[in-house]
Amino acid sequence: MNKIEHIGIAVADLKSSGSLYEKLLNTTIYKLEEVHSEGVKTAFLQTGPNKIELLEATSADSPIAKFIEKKGEGIHHIAFEVEDILAEMARLKNEGFILLSDEPKPGADNKLVCFVHPKSAGGVLVELVQSV
Fold first, then answer.
1. Residue 8, SS3?
2. β-strand 3-10 against 126-131: which pairing, if any?
3. Residues facing residue 78 across a β-bridge
4. pLDDT per position as a tens digit, 58-114
5. EC top class, in one word (predicted)?
6. What is the DSSP string of 42-107?
7. How many CB atoms sit inside 10 A of residue 106's CB?
């Protein structure tokens, strides 16, 4: 794993949370995107080398809606950049981690992604991210 690629934050309202984080980080949202396969709208902000991804559910049965219902708004996941997502997935499986998919999926910001189940990662949802 190369570096922390971004921190994902689940929000109930992308517009109001986007304004809040723009003020907090003293920057602007540089990209809005909808990821239909995950039932989510995203907004990306960057300050220095650090990126924040705000995530709003687009349906009541999406993972983000379920997360907010159970835990409320807040940090949802931490994403790590990898050079070879397939190799990293194989390595983690070999180390005993539980992956939430057998193959990487297209994600936001033109990335391939795979999530590591929080039960096998100390309670933290970990996302592997590879640039396409």
1. strand
2. unpaired
3. 7, 126
4. 999 999 999 999 999 999 999 999 999 999 999 999 999 999 999 999 999 999 999
5. isomerase
6. EEEEEETTEEEEEEEESSTTSHHHHHHHHH-SEEEEEEEE-S-HHHHHHHHHHTTPPBS-SS-EEE
7. 13
pLDDT for residue 42 is more than 90 = yes
Mean pLDDT over each residue of the chain, to the nearest integer = 96
CB 131 within 8 A of CB 83: no
Provide mean pLDDT across the span 38-52. 96
Place of tokens 């990662």: 121
Residues 6+ apart with CB under 8 A from 98: 116, 117, 119, 120
- Whole-number Cα distances in Å, 113 to 2, 27, 58, 79: 15, 26, 19, 9
pLDDT at residue number 1? 86
pTM of the model: 0.94
